[in-house]
Amino acid sequence: MGNSTKKLNLPQVTLVAMSSVNIKATIKAMLYSMRGIVFGDVVFITHKKPFGLPKEIRYSHTDKLKNIDDFNYKMVYELGSHIHTEFALIVHADGFVVHPELWQDAFLDYDYIGAPWPLPPKGDKTTYRDKDGKICRVGNSAGIRSKRLMDFPKKAGIPWEGEYAYGRMWYYEDGFICCKIRHLLEAEGMRIAPLEVAKYYSHEKMIPEVQGITPFAFHKWEGTNAQYPNFIKEPFLRRCKRFCKQCLKFCYTGGEKD
User: Residue 1: is its pLDDT beyond 50?
Assistant: First the structure.
């Protein structure tokens, strides 16, 4: 944060990631998110303790996530069991904290905050809508959730159901929480952040409402997000070495396949 060495202290927040892929990149994203912030806890939920996991990151076990469906289900029904603080700040290999100096205490006034969603396509009556057809403008998996929200679906026995969007059925955890069961959360007094606050938290889609704003976090490298680190992308030197090896192999074999 500028020239200051003072860090933001968030004892009520756990930094968390859940993944069985891009392990190294996820750890790097977590460490990057810890620059300038002291969290109450830091936990990586995965199927096997990564070799060389930094001591400041706690390992918490889950069965291997074999596909995106496993991830979505576990984020709804299992995530809360790994969290011991009032809130969790969720990061991915492709979405994490980039500007810790832009933290706002108002982010914790809500039970869910993430990057704003775009408006549905013209004429679309189902996408990004709650049970009453009202458009939901904030969702996105990489964000902050309260412990009570994370625990609610399992505790209340809410069935896992898809959400109809863009002409087909989706089983995405952010849509399930922010659209499908939004009315149930609100009935319990829980709140999802409005676009007016969320646009300062994170950006994913380059919608008009986020133009000119530098966010605290981001998700995916679209538009202005392209400037942020990409820990998944293969390093340039490694790509060059691999290319040279392929060229040498081609020269030795004359282009014949193995």
Answer: no
- The answer to whether the Cα torsion of 118, 162, 144, 50 is positive or negative is negative
Distance CA 17, CA 79 (A): 10
CATH architecture of 8-253: Alpha-Beta Complex (3.90)
Q: How long a stretch of residues is the chain?
A: 258
Distance CA 202, CA 215 (A): 5
Contact criterion met (CB below 8 Å) for 114 and 141: yes
- Read off the amino acid at residue 155: K
CA–CA distance, 157 with 153 (Å, rounded to integer) = 6
pLDDT, one tens digit per residue, over 26-69 is: 999 999 999 999 999 999 999 999 999 999 999 999 999 999 99
Query: Comparing 252 with 114, which gets the higher pLDDT?
Result: 114
pLDDT digits (tens, 9 = 90+) for 118-140: 999 999 999 999 999 999 999 99
Residue at 194: amino acid letter? P
Largest CA distance in the chain: 69
**CA 258 – CA 146 distance, rounded (Å):** 54
Cβ within 8 Å of residue 111, ≥6 positions away: 145, 146, 148, 149, 185, 190, 191, 192
**Taking the domains of the chain in order of start, what are their residue ranges?**
8-253
d(CA 191, CA 205): 22
Give the DSSP per-residue string, 53-118.
Answer: --TTSEEEE-----SHHHHHHHHHHTGGGG--SSEEEE-BTTB-BS-GGG--GGGGGSSEE-PBPP
Residue with tokens 């069985």, as numbered in its chain? 20
Task: Give this prediction's pTM.
Answer: 0.88
